[in-house]
Amino acid sequence: MTSTTRSTAPAARRAAFADPGYQAFVILRTGFTVAPILFGLDKFANLLVDWPVYLAPWIDDIVPGSAQTAMYAVGVVEIVAGVVVGLAPRLGGWLVAGWLAGIIVDLLTIPGHYDIALRDFGLLLGAVALARLAQRYHGSRE
Asked: Does residue 43 register a pLDDT over 70?
């Protein structure tokens, strides 16, 4: 029985990867693991963009320290969110969706950033799709 199980495991894995729903799950899981970690790391380097300009003044007034200090905290949260997606995508998808909702609120209160808020709404929908797909695929086919 062990040899049968071993020989069917690669076939089952190939069948899983042939499923378009599972492919979508893997794509979203990979993207929502890697992107938050990379963006979180960049909050410490500001290589991609000057991140503090994306912090609404009213939020900057509430949080202690400078806007850059707030971005360090944001970076830590984003790195943790990416790791959670990688390890537990059912939870991580919802975590990232909630985080993106907060970012959207921030961006909608900064004139001229509405296009980025709309983009982040699309990302939020992708994170919700990941969480829903993980309900079906995580742990059952990996």
From this structure: yes
The answer to whether the predicted template modeling score (pTM) of the entire model surpasses 0.90 is no
User: What phi-psi label fits residue 55: left (phi over 0), alpha (psi between -120 and 50 degrees) or beta?
Assistant: beta
Q: Would you list the DSSP string of 92-137?
A: HHHHHHHHHHHHHHHHHTSTT-HHHHHHHHHHHHHHHHHHHHHHHH
Return d(Cα 9, Cα 25) in angstroms, integer: 20
DSSP letter at 138 equals: T
Residue 95 amino acid letter: L
Question: 7 pLDDT band (50/70/90 cuts)?
Answer: low
Q: Is the dihedral of CA 75, 37, 133, 91 positive or negative?
A: negative
Non-local CB neighbours of 21 within 8 Å, separated by 6+ positions: 133, 136, 137
Token output for 93 = 């998808």
Q: What number of other Cβ atoms are within 10 A of residue 71's Cβ? A: 22
CA of residue 112 relative to chain centroid, distance = 24
Cα–Cα–Cα angle for 54, 26, 36, rounded to 5 degrees: 20
